[in-house]
C-alpha cells in the first residue's frame, strides 16, 4: 500500500498561457503581462487552478522566449519584474498559482554568460558552454539539432565549435560544470521565493550529452542523426536539482522529458521521482516520421492513439500522476488533428475534451482550446514565424518534396497553429490587439471567439467549466482522481471507451470519433448519465448506439 500525502495540486487543472499570443494590453501587437492580468477573471470563471506561463524572461525571441538572455528579468515587451510580482499576487487572490517555464538546457546566445564564454578560450566562463575543436575542419560529430542543421556552430573568433541541441542562438549550458549548476539552482530558488507554484521544466532530458567524438547512425539523407535526449547519467543532475531546489518548496514540477520511456517513468515522476509528473509524447508524436520529420504526411489510426494513452495510464496505476493534454504551444490544434474540417464544431470539441478529461492525471488546457480554436492555413512560408516551421519546410524542399507538400506540412503541423492570437471577440484580429498582431489571426475569429462562447450556455467553454467542476467537487471527483483505468473495445477504430473504477463505483467514458452512428455492446442499464454532448438524452440499455461524435459518461455499480 502506497501512502500518498495530499497536496494542494492534487485535483488541480492547469491552463497554459502563451504570453505572446494571449492578450495585448498596450497595442504593440504582442501579448503582455498586463494583458494576462486583465483576463484573470476569465480564467477564474473557467475554474482552473494553475497557469503555466510559457517563458516571459528577457529574450531576443528567436524561439519566442525559449531562448533566455536574463533569467532574472522579464522581457521588456511583456512587462517588468514588478508586473510579474503583481501577476503572481493577483492570481493568488483568485486561488490561481502561476508555474513558470524553466528553460535551462540552453540559454540565448545573447545571455551575458554566453557572451563571456565566447569572448576567449581563457575566459572563466568558457567552460559554461560546450566548446570543441574542429576535426578535419568539420564538427566533432554528425548530430543534427532539433531545429535543423548541425548541433555544432563554428565561432570564427576562437576557432572552436559550440554545441546546441536546438537553434544556433540557443547554446547548450554545460551541466558537467558545477558552477553552472549552482548558478541555475540559485536562480530557480530565487523564483520560487517569489511565490510561484512551481515549474514546467523545458526539454530537460537534453542536459546530458551524447559522446562528442562519436558519430551516430544517420537517420537522414544527409548523413546526420538527430540529437538524442535522456543519455545515461542524466538522473544524477536531476536528482541534484531536485534536492537543491524543488524539494525545499511546496510546489509541483512537470517535466518535458523527451526520450523517457514508460518503464522509466517511476524514476522520473512521482513522490520519489525527479519531478512530480512528466509530459508524455507518445500520443502526440504519432504523426512524426523518423528523425522527427513532419513530412510526408504519416497516417495513424485511432488504436495507435488509444494505445499510447493506455500505456501511460497503466504506468501510473500504482499512484503517481501524468500530464493529460491534447494541445500545447508546440502542437497543432486538437480539433484539426482528430476531426475532419467539415465537422469542426462545439459538439466535436466537447467529445475531445471529455475523452481526455476523465483519464487519470492532471489535465492541461491550452489557451483557445476551451473555445475550439483550430489550425490556421497561411498562404506562404513567409507568413509563418515559428523557427521549426521554417526548418521543416526548407528540409522538405531540400529532400525533393514540392513546395505544395511542404506548405501542406505546415498547415498540419506548424507550431504557429497554436500560436495565432487568442480569439476574444469578433472585432478586428479577434480583439487580441488594437495594433497589428505579431502573427496573423486565424480568420475564423468572427465565428470562434470567447465573447460568443460566454454568451451561449451550451458552448464548449461551459462544457470545460463543467468538466473542471466534475473533477474538483462532485459526486464523481474521487473516481476521477483515484479510479483504476481500463480500456474496453481496444480494437475499435471508431470509438474510445474506458472505465474508471473505485470500489463499487464505475465510470464508463464513451467517445465516438466518427461522423456516423456506432453501435456498442456495453451494458449501460441502471446507469446515471454524468455527461453527454447531445441535448437529447441517450437511450441506455444492453447495447448503446452512439450518435456521430457523441461523448457519453455514465456512472454505475461496478460489475
Ligand atoms: C521545448 C519547448 C519548445 C522549445 C524547445 C526549446 O520543446 O516546448 O517550444 O522550442 O523546448 O527550448
Ligand atoms: Ca503588448
What characteristic shape results from the CA principal axes?
globular
Q: What structural class results from the helix and strand content?
A: alpha/beta
| Named CATH topology of the largest domain | TIM Barrel
How many separate helices?
A: 16
What is the class of the largest domain in the CATH system?
Alpha Beta
CATH superfamily of the largest domain: Glycosidases
The amount of helix comes to 25-40%
Low-confidence stretches: none
Radius of gyration: 24 Å
Number of domains: 3
Total strands: the figure is 22
Task: Tell me about the largest β-sheet.
Answer: 8 strands, parallel
Strand content: 15-25%
The first-to-last residue Cα distance is: 24 Å
Order of strands across the main sheet = 13-12-10-5-2-1-15-14
CATH architecture name of the largest domain: Alpha-Beta Barrel
Q: What would the average pLDDT be, to the nearest integer?
A: 96
List ligands, each type once: alpha-D-glucopyranose, calcium ion
Amino acid at each position: 500500500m502506497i501512502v500518498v500525502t495530499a497536496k494542494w495540486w492534487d485535483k488541480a487543472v492547469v491552463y497554459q498561457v502563451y504570453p505572446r499570443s494571449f492578450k495585448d494590453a498596450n497595442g504593440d501587437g504582442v501579448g503582455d503581462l498586463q494583458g494576462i492580468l486583465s483576463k484573470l477573471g476569465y480564467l477564474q470563471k473557467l475554474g482552473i487552478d494553475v497557469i503555466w506561463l510559457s517563458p516571459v524572461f528577457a529574450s531576443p525571441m528567436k524561439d519566442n522566449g525559449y531562448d533566455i538572455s536574463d533569467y532574472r528579468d522579464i522581457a521588456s515587451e511583456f512587462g517588468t519584474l514588478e508586473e510579474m510580482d503583481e501577476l503572481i499576487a493577483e492570481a493568488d487572490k483568485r486561488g490561481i498559482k502561476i508555474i513558470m517555464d524553466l528553460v535551462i538546457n540552453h540559454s540565448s546566445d545573447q545571455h551575458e554568460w554566453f557572451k563571456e564564454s565566447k569572448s576567449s578560450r581563457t575566459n572563466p566562463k568558457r567552460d559554461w558552454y560546450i566548446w570543441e575543436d574542429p576535426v578535419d575542419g568539420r564538427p566533432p560529430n554528425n548530430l543534427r539539432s532539433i531545429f535543423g542543421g548541425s548541433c555544432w556552430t563554428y565561432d570564427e573568433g576562437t576557432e572552436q565549435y559550440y554545441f546546441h541541441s536546438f537553434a544556433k542562438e540557443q547554446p547548450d549550458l554545460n551541466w558537467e560544470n558545477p558552477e553552472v549548476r549552482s548558478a541555475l539552482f540559485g536562480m530557480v530558488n530565487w523564483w520560487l521565493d517569489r511565490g510561484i507554484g512551481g515549474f514546467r521544466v523545458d526539454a530537460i532530458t537534453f542536459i546530458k550529452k551524447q559522446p562528442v567524438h562519436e558519430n551516430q547512425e544517420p537517420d537522414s539523407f544527409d548523413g546526420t542523426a538527430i540529437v538524442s535526449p535522456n543519455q545515461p547519467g542524466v538522473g544524477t543532475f536531476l536528482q541534484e536539482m531536485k534536492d537543491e531546489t524543488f524539494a525545499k518548496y511546496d510546489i509541483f514540477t512537470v517535466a518535458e522529458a523527451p526520450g523517457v520511456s514508460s518503464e522509466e517513468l517511476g524514476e522520473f515522476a512521482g513522490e520519489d521521482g525527479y519531478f512530480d509528473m512528466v509530459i508524455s509524447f507518445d500520443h502526440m508524436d504519432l504523426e512524426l516520421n523518423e528523425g522527427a520529420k513532419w513530412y510526408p504526411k504519416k497516417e495513424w489510426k485511432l488504436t495507435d492513439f488509444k494505445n499510447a494513452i493506455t500505456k501511460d495510464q497503466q504506468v501510473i496505476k500504482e499512484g503517481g500522476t501524468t500530464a493529460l493534454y491534447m494541445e500545447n504551444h508546440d502542437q497543432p490544434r486538437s480539433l484539426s488533428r482528430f476531426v475532419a474540417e467539415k465537422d469542426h464544431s462545439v459538439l466535436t470539441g466537447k467529445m475531445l475534451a471529455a475523452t481526455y478529461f476523465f483519464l487519470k492525471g492532471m489535465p492541461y488546457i491550452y489557451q483557445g482550446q476551451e473555445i475550439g480554436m483550430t489550425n490556421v492555413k497561411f498562404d506562404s512560408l513567409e507568413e509563418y514565424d515559428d523557427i521549426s516551421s521554417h526548418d521543416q519546410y526548407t528540409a522538405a524542399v531540400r529532400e525533393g518534396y514540392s513546395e505544395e507538400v511542404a506548405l501542406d506540412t505546415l498547415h498540419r503541423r506548424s507550431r504557429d497553429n497554436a500560436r495565432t492570437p487568442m480569439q476574444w471577440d469578433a472585432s478586428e484580429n479577434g480583439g487580441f490587439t488594437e495594433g497589428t498582431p505579431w502573427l496573423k489571426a486565424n480568420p475564423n475569429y468572427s465565428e470562434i471567439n470567447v465573447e460568443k462562447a460566454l454568451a451561449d450556455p451550451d458552448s464548449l467553454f461551459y462544457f470545460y467549466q463543467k468538466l473542471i467542476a466534475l473533477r474538483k467537487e462532485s459526486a464523481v471527483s474521487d473516481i476521477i482522481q483515484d479510479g483504476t483505468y481500463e480500456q474496453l473495445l481496444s480494437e475499435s477504430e471508431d470509438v474510445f471507451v474506458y472505465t474508471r473504477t473505485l470500489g463499487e463505483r464505475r465510470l464508463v467514458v464513451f467517445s465516438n470519433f466518427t461522423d456516423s452512428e456506432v453501435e456498442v455492446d456495453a451494458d449501460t442499464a441502471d446507469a446515471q448519465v454524468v455527461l453527454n454532448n447531445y441535448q437529447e438524452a441517450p437511450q441506455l440499455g444492453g447495447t448503446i448506439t452512439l450518435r456521430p461524435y457523441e461523448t457519453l459518461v455514465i456512472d454505475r455499480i461496478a460489475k
